Amino acid sequence: MGLLDILLGRTKPAPPDLDQLFGLPSAAVTLEAAAGFTPTGQGAVCFATVEGAAFAQAHREAQALLDADAGRTGPPVERVQDAYGYSWLVSRRAPDQLVELVNDLHAVNSALEASGFGPQLLCSLAGFHDDTGRRLALVYLYKRGSFYPFAPLPGQAQRRDNALEIQLKGVLADDLRMEEDLSRWFPVWGAPGL
Fold first, then answer.
1. Phi and psi at residue 76, in whole multiples of 5°?
2. I need a labelling partner for 86 at 20 to 30 A (CA). Which of 10, 109, 188, 193 fits?
3. Does residue 37 lie in a domain region?
4. How far apart, in Å, are the Cα atoms of 101 and each of 44, 87, 92, 124, 165?
């Protein structure tokens, strides 16, 4: 960052640090103790789809890596395209296999990044729920290197529980690098894995 950036108030965003994903299991313990949310066993990686053989090959390799895991419960990893044209690679595990789910998310991100497609990575999420039916995603912003909670309100179309999200930001601050800029807490409506 140069002097002009400092004078104009520009900041350099934190570089992606995929190892931040490994903080999710300890955050899950905190989340359950403080708010009663437990893992669903579902997670996903979102990326902007790119046309071309190189991207298709990188995607196939990432999916084959995850599909080859003999310990997987449920269907193999699946690719889903959302209403906005983004692609999601969805992983499903047993709810008590959060560590394995995190490994899946990390592997997909790493494979795409190593193939030169880091700029297409948008976010990763791990799903949680509580006994009352509330859903929650802990969303990792690839380009920011930080997390934020996303809590859609049950039974209400595209409304979120902002109070719960702010509460959980404070609860999880010691476990995860939380995104400080609330304008970057994008809603991930209908995200697979949530």
1. -65, 175
2. 10
3. yes
4. 9, 18, 7, 11, 22
| Per-residue DSSP letter, 4 | H
CA 5 to chain centroid, in Å, comes to 30
Domain count, the chain: 1
DSSP structure string for 50-69: --SHHHHHHHHHHHHHHHT-
pLDDT digits (tens, 9 = 90+) for 83-139: 888 989 899 999 999 999 999 999 889 888 888 888 889 999 999 999 998 999 999
pTM of the predicted model as reported, rounded to 2 decimal places: 0.86
Whether 145 contacts 20, CB under 8 Å: yes
Which carries the bigger pLDDT value, residue 154 or residue 15? 154
Q: In terms of residue numbers, what domain contains 62? A: 15-184
Q: Is residue 193 part of a domain?
A: no
Q: Does residue 191 contact residue 44 with C-beta atoms inside 8 Å? A: yes
67 in Cβ contact with 78 (< 8 Å): no
